[in-house]
Amino acid sequence: MPLARKRIFRIPAPPPTTIYVRPGYNRVLAEEFEALKVKRVGLVKDKVEAHSQGDLRENFGFKAAKDAIRAVDRKMTALDRFVARNTFFEVDPATWLTKPTATLQLGHVTTIEKQDVGTNRKHRFTFLVTTHGETASDPESGIECLPHNSPLATAVLGLAVNASAQVRLPAGEAILIVRSIRNPTAAELDRLLTAIKPPEIEEDGE
Questions:
Q1: In a 10 Å sphere around its CB, with 0-12 CB exposed, 13-18 middle and 19+ buried, how is residue 1 labelled?
Q2: In the prediction, which pLDDT does 48 show?
Q3: DSSP readout, 74-123?
Q4: What is the pLDDT of residues 13-67, one digit of tens each?
Q5: Considering 39, 77, 109, 166, which has the largest number of Cβ atoms within 10 A of its Cβ?
Q6: Is the pTM of this model over 0.85?
């Protein structure tokens, strides 16, 4: 009986989305890609030099350079796909200082009450709903950044004060209640919004 052909199942690529970012994010993406290209050129030179040193079976410098090139190639491919799959819409945080506060939107400071369905435990958190990739916290006010495309933010965006939603978060089933919505202050933005960094993206499996 002939062997059945091996089937390989791959996770489908995520659908294209609009990701809100601060001005300058697209420049940072381009700079990161260029830096990877420069790094790859240097590694190729290392590989060629190591190749000239003799027996490749015990040439650890050659193997290290080869592996490093593959790692850079994977990062470049992942970054290229990240850019190709998404649309980046730049948002100026200065507009967050005077936004209407009837419903929770990007740029608002909000206090969220989370009640775990399994244990009925309640927790309160105060967040600045911010752009992609923000993770800073402000020890002075206790506010944390909550990226707009995180599971928790996705569940509560658009809700009014005291509105609730039951959602399944990575930590389990929970009821979320929006307890307050306000605009941030300029001082809070200065403390919370850090330098823009390239994304930490997962490499696609081979």
A1: exposed
A2: 83
A3: HHHHHHHHHHHHEEEEE--GGGGGG---SS--TT-EEEEEEEETTT--EE
A4: 556 689 999 999 999 999 999 999 999 999 888 888 877 766 556 667 778 888 8
A5: 109
A6: no
Query: CA–CA distance from 199 to each of 32, 55, 75, 193 (Å)?
Result: 9, 39, 11, 15
d(CA 83, CA 30): 10
* 143-147 and 122-130 beta bridge pairing: parallel
The set of residues, in sequence order, having a beta carbon less than 8 Å from that of 111 and lying 6+ positions away, is 124, 125, 126, 127, 178, 179, 180
Q: Write out pLDDT tens, residues 151-166.
A: 899 999 999 999 999 9
Rounded Cα–Cα distance for residues 129 and 156 (Å): 10
Domains identified in the chain and CATH numbers:
17-90 (1.10.287.180), 93-192 (3.10.50.30)
